[in-house]
Amino acid sequence: MRRKVSVYLLLIILLVLIFLALGGKNYFSKKADKEYYKGTDSQIIVDEKKHSEDWKKTWIIAHDPNNSPSEKFEIIIEDKNTWNLININNKYFASYEKKGSIEKVNDKKTHYQLIQIVYPDNPDNVPLN
Question: Which of 25, 83, 100, 126 could connect to 58 by a Cys-Cys bridge, CB 3.0–4.6 Å?
Answer without folding.
Answer: 83
